[in-house]
């Protein structure tokens, strides 16, 4: 997961703390399958360099991910994504819930019956999935990649 091009072009907003945006970035990469359960992740210093963020910010993000049991760090071994299925399911539910809440908030003032709304969602989702299948698949990361925890 420490390929430079996988981290290129990531921008952070000025509203939220950068460390929390890094945590969300990891969650999104896990949910979308870019990062696999049990996979080694870059060291804190490597991640800071890849994302062009302060090493202390990377350290804080890793601490938060450890607190949430999203990553596991044992001794001097590289950090890895958790193998706990409950944690992985919780991440997916969290991201889905957040997206749905934002969607509902954005259309709250539109007076549309629920069945019509669900039909539009189903149509757009089907179209998006069809477009997704036409894109060339990304090469998955190998579980053995990543850096040492040299922090």
Task: Sum up the structure in keywords.
151 residues, mainly alpha, two-stranded antiparallel sheet, 6 helices, disordered C terminus
Commentary on this structure:
The structure is a single chain. The chain has 151 residues and is mainly α. The chain has a two-stranded antiparallel sheet with strand order 1-2. It has six helices and two strands; from the N terminus they run ααααββαα. It has helices spanning 4-7, 18-31, 44-51, 55-67, 85-107, 114-134; strands spanning 71-72, 80-81.
Care to give the gist of this entry?
The protein is mainly alpha-helical.
Describe the protein's topology.
Layout: H1 4-7, H2 18-31, H3 44-51, H4 55-67, E1 71-72, E2 80-81, H5 85-107, H6 114-134
Antiparallel strand pairs: 1-2
Helix pairs in contact: 2-4, 2-5, 3-4
How much is the average pLDDT? 85
- Per DSSP, the total helix count is 6
CA gyration radius, whole angstroms = 18 Å
The biggest sheet, with number of strands, parallel, antiparallel or mixed sense and barrel status, is: 2 strands, antiparallel
Elements, N to C (H/E): HHHHEEHH
Q: Assign an overall shape.
A: elongated
What is the percentage of strand-forming residues?
A: under 5%
Fraction of residues in helix: 40-55%
């Amino acid at each position: 997961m420490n390929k430079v091009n996988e981290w290129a072009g990531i921008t952070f907003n000025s509203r939220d703390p950068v460390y929390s945006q890094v945590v969300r970035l990891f969650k999104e990469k896990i949910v979308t399958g870019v990062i696999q359960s049990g996979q080694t992740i870059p060291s804190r210093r490597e991640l800071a360099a890849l994302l062009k963020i302060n090493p202390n910010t990377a350290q804080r993000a890793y601490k938060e991910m450890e607190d949430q049991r999203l990553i596991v760090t044992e001794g001097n071994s590289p950090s890895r994504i958790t193998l706990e299925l409950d944690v992985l399911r919780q991440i997916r539910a969290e991201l889905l819930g957040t997206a749905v809440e934002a969607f509902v908030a954005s259309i709250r003032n539109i007076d549309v019956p629920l069945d019509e709304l669900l039909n539009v969602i189903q149509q757009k989702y089907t179209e998006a999935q069809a477009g997704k299948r036409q894109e060339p698949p990304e090469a998955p990361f190998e579980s053995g990649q990543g850096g040492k925890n040299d922090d």
